[in-house]
Predict the 3D structure of the following.
Amino acid sequence: MFSYIILSSILALVGGIFYFAILKRFLQVLHAKYALMSIIALSLVIPFTVPNLPTFADSVESQHLFDYHAYDKWNVVDIQDPKLLDCYNQAATSGDVCNCEMVQKTEILAYKSHGGYNIIYWSRQPVIYTFLLILGLMILDLGVKLMFLVYLAMSSRKEKYRLADTNFYILYTSNHQKLPISSFTLFRHYIICPPLFEKFTAEEQKAILLHEIAHLQQHDTWQQIGLNIARLFWWMMPMYYFFKKELRSLNEFVADEFAVEKMGNTKKYATILLKAKECQLNLQQASYTLTFAKAKSLFKDRILRLVHRPKHTEGIAPKKSKHLLFALCTAVGLLWATSVLTAPVLQDQVIAFKQYEVLKMESDQTGKSTFCKDCLIQKLTKRK
């Protein structure tokens, strides 16, 4: 599990740098969203394609053990070899050192205390329990959020609507729930409309609904669920929070583009956003922001994008799909190459620690510092 977390985090870091340093500059909003989602998905999936890490016994056996019975060069053993003499001395007082004549080929596994490995060795249990606790809390948090959405869908007064070729239900909530205008998808599409919604004219309500319909059509609910699943593995990785913030911005930009395209008037839509923000401040609900204005900085960015939006822009369906194809192919190649280069190093480190762990346990139990590889492998094989 920890090998998977480390490798996927490395891929996410490389993919994030690639996106923020290069892709974000030349991809249009919708394509940037698809590219970023692809990088996140690839970072989570590619580690599964890496072969499973071998056990300590398998790795040592394959690298260091050979058939003693097939060895026919006993006469070339140097009986004066210091390692051979040391083996004889140990064999005189211990039954754990065997096949001394082969010491020049097999070597003796020697335990030597390592500060870094000792820290990992002694802290692994608290780290594992802490990780499992945080994992459980995050799963509980996701479950509570999903159950609350189910509760809203079942308990709220609802009306069925159709707009922009999309069927959805409007959920009318009460004042005490203090919910923002937002949308979500479970088995059906829903748009939450609190009493604040009544303060807008019919045209303004349509603009707000169009914005939320874009979120529904883009399946942003499932995207958020996917991000919460990724958080189970990446909660300690800073790049995850950059991904989350960037996707939130891209989702809002795409929804704004969709609403403007359907309304046909950028200035009027920007005015509606400003009115919504003003209503929000007047009601002193700064902590309960609207879906299309979650943060001041994001709201400012959205207004600036609308003000400077080129008049010839044609909706959210950019024509230069070759840019997205190039970005995806490059991302796949980059992340796969990173995995190919990183996985063996990670595997070697995991095997090295497993070997150290076994030798430390044997040393603590027996008080010895040297062990025969063949004897140790046989013992480990019996543990399987």
